[in-house]
UniProtKB/TrEMBL annotation:
Tagged with keyword Hydrolase: yes
Pfam short name (any one): RecG_dom3_C
Organism: Longimicrobium terrae
Protein name, UniProt field: ATP-dependent DNA helicase RecG
One GO molecular-function entry: 3'-5' DNA helicase activity
């Protein structure tokens, strides 16, 4: 059990807190002394680069510090109310103006010492327009910041300003830091190899930095600690999965793998060869394989997975391939049969569409061992479905399945190996965070000969020309997608919606065959529409992002995306991947409303590298927005930044795995075991599921 320390005492008993202020601290989630110590600044004001007011010139972007000598709200003829304050430093004074922010009159008082960032302009003389301000001190209060230092700005709440939080922490910091020296859970050797400072030193650097580099050094220590304990949890889950469920050794026999390799009409890429070696090493060992295979659209994941399945088959076992939709299951079944050619391998397809007699026949053959590779949807995990000797489970588009569903298919076998695949490129930092308990293989090379997709950015005004181009492509016998971000129009959002535009597009293309598909349609209806489109019975498919993943229609050569600025770059990449799947030249056209979004879309149009796009998306939108609700397993970090902390993350993973390899249950590291318990509780139980 975790040990109680002085840092666990209620925040109420800190200096100058008391019951009333403790209630305010509770609004910030600060219940204990430890919470207060770890309540680090969310930004810093660099008062070391302050410009004297007398030196300000129009057009200059600057930071100034001054006392408020007068203030008031100025109304204009157009009804706009402007808050103005005159501030003075030792060498001059200047009028500061906040158009449309009269409420500041209640927040800023005469005598306040302010730090202001903004731009000097000329308006009846020099005027300063602040973008942001910070109150350093009230009238009569002394402030060391006037001389020019780095000082922290803390998250605050109503009734407790950031200035009051800063004062409260400063008054208690020395005592809290003394206690923090005994709270350091990182082993010294781990800390030194990672190049991070001790805990108390890190916290002092964040609360009392002398430079911004000091604050960053403190953040890196706390970030490494967050990443290290997460990776320690992953490492334990990885070890327990292997120990509790030992796998099957699949030696290479080459009775199927070698003939299959020789029969391929193309050469494997370097990335495919590398990944096959990684998978082969896993399968040859008695340790249960639990591997994630990441690869962009067209990178050859299916071929790689088939090599793995054949290795299981030539050792006397069956393989299963589970996919999220019936159409995908049918596509994979056809692809596998085509790739296998004359090899003596039977492929069985199990989906909910099968009639009772067909279902009984397939499930009987699976249980009898007459089906070598079973391809199916959730049907594979329904009650009554059994395998004769399942040795390898492959899960495609793994993020579309819940943990329990993936666990259910794994349990259909007797310690079967597992290969989960994703066509959604994930930056390495996110992959290690989300799937740190899995071994990760990446296909980052596309097979030669695949035609590039021409991507074009067009303003909304070009829409008539774009639709004319779509008609021309259809006249050549091709098919097209037109994608919208919404299903129905909204009063709150001025965007085109699929259902409304579908009716208008039928008037634009009266001679063509149009259909619509979106997520609110019943599953059977969506399935019927996609089958018709796949069969060439529909010329233009109007859609929302329901077609984002897995739809394979080689004859579709045009993807038009309306309001492209409303999509993330990774989502746009998945949509673009629906075309360019055949031999004809393909196009992706992004219609947008201009503005700042155009620059972001140019990044997307400049490359087809899904991993580069995912990195850009992470940089622009952050991990939470990139994955949204779909990836609820993404932990919330207070200190770590997955875009810039990849080296810290890799170091944390290496250190964590090395410790668990030597001491799986952390018997020699009780401080680490206690820290895991306090941080994660029983969350480790589901971590071993791929």
């Amino acid at each position: 059990m975790p040990t109680y320390t002085e840092l666990d005492r209620p925040a109420q008993f800190l200096k100058n807190v008391g019951p009333k202020r403790a209630d305010l601290l509770a609004k910030l989630g600060l219940l204990t002394a430890r919470d207060v110590l770890y309540h680090v600044p969310h930004r810093y004001e660099d008062a070391s680069t302050v410009t004297p007011i007398s030196a300000l010139e129009p057009g200059m972007d600057a930071t100034i510090i001054g006392r408020v000598v007068s203030k008031g709200v100025l109304p204009t003829r157009r009804g706009l109310r402007i808050f103005q304050a005159v501030v003075r430093d030792g060498g001059g004074l200047i009028e500061c103006s906040w158009p449309g922010q009269p409420f500041l009159d209640r927040q800023i008082a005469r005598g306040d010492l302010l730090l202001l960032r903004g731009t000097c302009r000329f308006y009846h003389g020099r005027q300063f327009q602040p973008r942001e301000y910070t109150t350093l001190a009230r009238e009569g209060e002394e402030s060391t910041e006037e001389s020019g230092t780095i000082f922290p700005v803390y998250p605050a709440t109503e009734g407790l300003t950031h200035r009051q939080v800063r004062t409260l922490i400063a008054e208690n910091l020395d005592g809290l830091l003394r206690q923090a020296r005994d709270d350091d859970r990182l082993p010294r050797d781990v800390r030194e190899r990672a190049g991070v400072v001790p805990l108390a030193e890190a916290l002092e650097a964040m609360h009392r930095p002398t430079t911004l580099a000091d604050a960053e050094r403190g953040r890196q220590r706390l970030a490494f600690e967050e990443l290290f304990f997460l990776q320690l949890l992953h490492a334990q889950a990885h070890h327990r999965a292997a120990a509790e469920r030992p796998g099957i050794a699949f030696p290479r026999r080459d009775t199927l793998v070698k003939p299959f390799h020789k029969s391929l009409p193309f050469a494997l890429t370097g990335a495919q060869k590398r990944v096959l070696k990684e998978i082969g090493t896993d399968m040859a060992s008695p340790r249960r394989m639990n591997r994630l295979l990441q690869g962009d659209v067209g990178s050859g994941k299916t071929v790689v997975s088939l090599f793995a399945m054949l290795r299981a088959l030539e050792n006397g076992y069956q393989a299963a391939l589970m996919v999220p939709t019936e159409i995908l299951a049918e596509q994979h079944s056809r692809t596998l049969i085509k790739l296998l050619g004359d090899l003596p391998v039977s492929v069985g397809l199990l989906t909910g569409r099968l009639k009772t007699k067909q279902w009984e026949e397939v499930t009987y053959r699976m249980a009898a061992g007459d089906v070598d590779i079973a391809v199916g949807t959730h049907a594979l995990i329904q009650d009554g479905v059994a395998f004769h000797k399942l040795g390898l489970v492959v899960v495609d588009e793994q993020h579309r399945f819940g943990v329990k569903q993936r666990q259910a298919i794994q349990e259909r076998g007797d310690n079967s190996d597992t290969l989960v695949m994703s066509a959604t490129p994930i930056p390495r930092s996110l992959a290690l965070t989300l799937y740190g308990d899995l071994d990760i293989s990446v296909l980052d090379e596309r097979p030669p000969g695949r035609q590039p997709i021409k991507t074009a950015l067009r303003n909304e005004s070009a829409r008539p020309k774009v639709l004319k181009f779509v008609a021309e492509q259809v006249a050549l016998g091709r098919q097209a997608y037109i994608v919208y971000p919404l299903v129905e129009e909204s009063e709150k959002v001025d965007l085109k919606a699929a259902t409304v535009e579908f009716e208008q597009l039928k008037e634009v293309f009266p001679e063509l065959r149009l259909a619509i598909i979106h997520g609110q349609m019943p599953g059977e209806e969506k399935d019927r529409v996609m089958r018709s489109f796949s069969a060439g019975e529909i010329d233009i498919l109007v859609s929302t992002t329901v077609i984002e993943v897995g739809i394979d229609v080689p004859n579709a050569t045009v993807m038009v995306i309306e309001h492209a600025e409303r999509f993330g770059l990774s989502q746009l990449h998945q949509l673009r991947g629906r075309v360019g799947r055949g031999s004809e030249e393909s196009f992706c056209i992004l219609l947008h409303s201009g503005g700042e979004a155009a620059q972001r879309l140019k990044i997307f149009a400049s490359t087809e590298d899904g991993f580069a796009i995912a990195e850009a998306d992470l940089r622009l939108r952050g991990a939470g927005d990139l994955f949204g609700a779909r990836q609820s397993g993404l932990p919330a970090f207070r200190f770590a930044d997955l875009e810039k902390d990849i080296q810290l993350l890799s170091a944390a993973r290496g250190e964590a795995r090395a410790i668990v390899d030597r001491d799986p249950e952390l018997a020699s590291h009780p401080e680490l075991r206690d820290a895991l318990e306090s941080r994660y509780g029983d969350r480790a139980r589901m971590f071993h599921v791929g």
